[in-house]
Write a structure and sequence with these properties.
GO biological process, one term: fatty acid metabolic process
CATH class: Alpha Beta
CATH superfamily: Alpha/Beta hydrolase fold, catalytic domain
Subunit structure: Homodimer.
Order of helices and strands: HEEHEHEEHEH
Number of domains: 1
Pfam family, one: Abhydrolase_2
GO cellular component, one term: plasma membrane
Distance between the termini: 28 Å
Number of strands: 6
Largest sheet: 4 strands, parallel
Shape: globular
Strand order of the largest sheet: 3-4-5-6
CATH architecture: 3-Layer(aba) Sandwich
Helix content: 25-40%
Radius of gyration: 16 Å
Protein name: Acyl-protein thioesterase 1
Structural class: alpha/beta
């Protein structure tokens, strides 16, 4: 709900926005207490174990949402995936593993999950030319800026580096700001022009 409010401030009349809720599940990092989460988070260090099965299942759920929109008459190359934190991580992973050509990815304050599972060098995916807008606050205490920087370097080795834009925001923590939302709006308007 929080993001649907943020998106209301930048929405374009010709674009449909879908903000799915993550399911509620126990999260290891949260002392196994249930919270909305796309997949389990075991740790926050770059070498922490990852919930591979959960990440892959969550990506299948996103692919099902894309399929539904395609059935509704929206070509997949007119769909941008986007998300914040875990949702951004899931958006990146899904875009790089789906067989559907997408219009772009907006990845906010996030990282690339299962990065070691991707081959070295350019991916052979339909989305190897996908435009990516990756944004990160330079004061993020939860997902450090270093994760964003490592992710952008990995992305540039996998897809056309000219299509990867990395923006940082001074003083921003694990949140968003007006400047970031305006960058997101500009990206969406550029890659989903009115037809």
């Amino acid at each position: 709900h929080g993001w649907s409010e943020a998106l209301a401030g930048i929405r374009s009349p010709h674009v449909k926005y879908i903000c799915p809720h993550a399911p509620v599940m126990p999260v290891s990092l949260n002392m196994n207490m249930a919270m909305p989460s796309w997949f389990d988070i075991i740790g926050l260090s770059p070498d922490a174990q990852e919930d591979e099965a959960g990440i892959k299942q969550a990506a299948e759920n996103v692919k099902a949402l894309i399929d539904q929109e395609v059935k509704n008459g929206i070509p997949s190359n007119r769909i941008i995936l986007g998300g914040f934190s875990q949702g951004g991580a899931l958006s990146l992973y899904t875009a790089l593993t789906t067989q559907q050509k997408l219009a772009g990815v907006v990845a906010l304050s996030c990282w690339l999950p299962l990065r070691a599972s991707f081959p070295q060098g350019t991916i052979s995916s339909v989305n190897k030319e996908i435009p990516v807008l990756q944004c990160h606050g330079d004061c993020d205490p939860l997902v450090p800026l270093m994760f964003g920087s490592l992710t952008v370097e990995k992305l540039k080795s996998m897809i056309n580096p000219a299509n990867v834009t990395f923006r940082t925001y001074s003083g921003m923590m694990h949140s968003s700001c007006i400047e970031e939302m305006m960058d997101v709006k500009q990206f969406i308007d550029k890659h989903l022009p009115s037809v």
